Amino acid sequence: MSTITAPPEDGSxxxxxxxxxxxxxxxxxxxxxxxxxxxxxxxxxxxVFGVTGLFPILYTAFISLQDWDLVRNSGEYIGFAQFSxxxxxxxxxxxxxxxxxxxxxxxxxxxxxxxxxxxxLDANLRAKxxxxxxxxxxxxxxxVAVALIFSNMFGEKYGLINSLLNDMGLxxxxxxxxxxxxxxxxxxxxNFRWTGYNALILLAAMQAIPRDLYEAAAIDGARAAxxxxxxxxxxxxxxxxxxIITATIGGLQIFDxxxxxxxxxxxxxxxxxxxxxxxxxxxxxGKFNFGRAAAVAWLLFLIIVGITLMNNYLTRRFVSGDEAVxxxxxxxxxxxxxxxx
Amino acid sequence: xAGRRRTGIGTGRPSPYVYAILAVVLVGSVFPFYWSFLIGxxxxxxxxxQNLSWWxxxxxxxNAQEVINNPAVNFWKALTNSIIVSTVTxxxxxxxxxxxxxxxxxxxxxxxxxxxxxxxxxMAVPVQLGVVPLYIAMQExxxxxxxGAVILPALVTAFGVFWMTQYLSQSLPTELIEAxxxxxxxxxxxxxxxxxxxxxxxxxMLALFTFVTTWNNFFWPFIVLDQQSPTLPVALSLLQANYFxxxxxxxxxxxIATLPLLLLFMxxxxxxxxxxxxGAVKG
Lengths: 341, 283
Fold this sequence. Notes:
Chain A is an all-alpha fold. Chain A has 15 helices and 2 strands. Chain A has 2 domains: about 25-75, no CATH class; about 80-320, MetI-like fold (Orthogonal Bundle), CATH 1.10.3720.
């Protein structure tokens, strides 16, 4: 090992002696650099979030308790009157019903289809990338564009779907008049855009399953279908929960597709496909009642939080098989020890 | 993962049924575009035609031109705005997310844990929650109708920070940073030479996804922008109001507005696929 003996600089011995109290400018800058740089790096995120996220959220809470005057841009405190108005409004409940209906009609078939497509893509395919890209293609199209295309295909008189139904000798379905058909049409737009995306997420989870699990199952005599339900599904469960949660958060906020489903954008003659976010928009930028719109925003947020928590609870309880088994074992253990005493 | 030869359900080469299912899915993915082209290349009466031909008509370019030249649609302005908004947003999101992700993944500082939790928590907050005050604020600044109002809230996202944190904590060895520091690199230089360089693959993905998401974003631009200076989705939403009877124009307009992203998909679709699959494994 060689030591580098630099010629002593002027005052270097001085510096070592007083290291604790007299740091050079360079050293001090170095210390500051280490200490404060991390905060500087994360600062832009928190500034942007503060200005466009946190401040508006708090302000939404404030405005929701006000009778907001658009001209003066200020309001009068009226307590929870906006909330109780919204909760007593029939349209709010219709919007809530529609939102949930559209969400369920899209989420459930989508998850099933995505899982099946993922399973098919997981096979030892030729031209893998081509097939994967083909399922993802709809994802890059704007929801507004998707809505315009499908709104045309679901036209009542001259739409493609109804003409096909008529050709098959079936009657037309009133896609833009009846409640459930309109929900199905809107759910179809959502599914068109997101099924492939979710299939790719599930495919990634499937590919991470250790191969020997399948081999062991095969040796035990499990056929393909059995292997799918007893190996694949339990193994991709955490990813499925992730997909369900993101679909829920996105689904409850749905706006683009129902807004573009007809030319008016108000959710149909009898509000058949009015959703919560459309309701918020109509109150905020149709009637320019910002206090009330803010109250709707908070209600929507609370609903999303509530559903997410419920989702967590349910998936933990029903979907996760081994946890249920663990719980059952625990209870039986408890019972047996109790019985022993 | 490359070169792995195993199948989830079966073994060996899959049966023809598998390809048949995939072909059906492929048709489902592509058909709506074909339908748009079919209607968009016809005339106003094509949609009412009882014996609609499955062969496209010859009016697509005329229809597209009519949409583009319609001053109410403001197509070129919308296209320029979409390009500016998506590019600026993607660039700034990538840079600021990498910066913050680097700090969270590799630097030790007081409060880093709770701060990262705070970042992740903000992901659960829906846009709707802040939209009213944000609009009031933009009105106060006089930014309504200005694409700045769309860019500002999207300059950096919690998802981006989270994504880069995940990537850098796995891909950048801490020893490398320490070595650079010992060699006398300042914090910023270390970030510049190690952080940014290592982050490049994840940054490319993030840029791509941010670009696509911003390009398609509708709710907030629809609120804050107007016909004078829209983004493409906002302009599309006006198409229907302008030509609510003539679907050949509406769907021709939809196709030309979608064309830029279809082109992007042709070149970067492969990256999008692997981005989604990587994100799934990590998230």
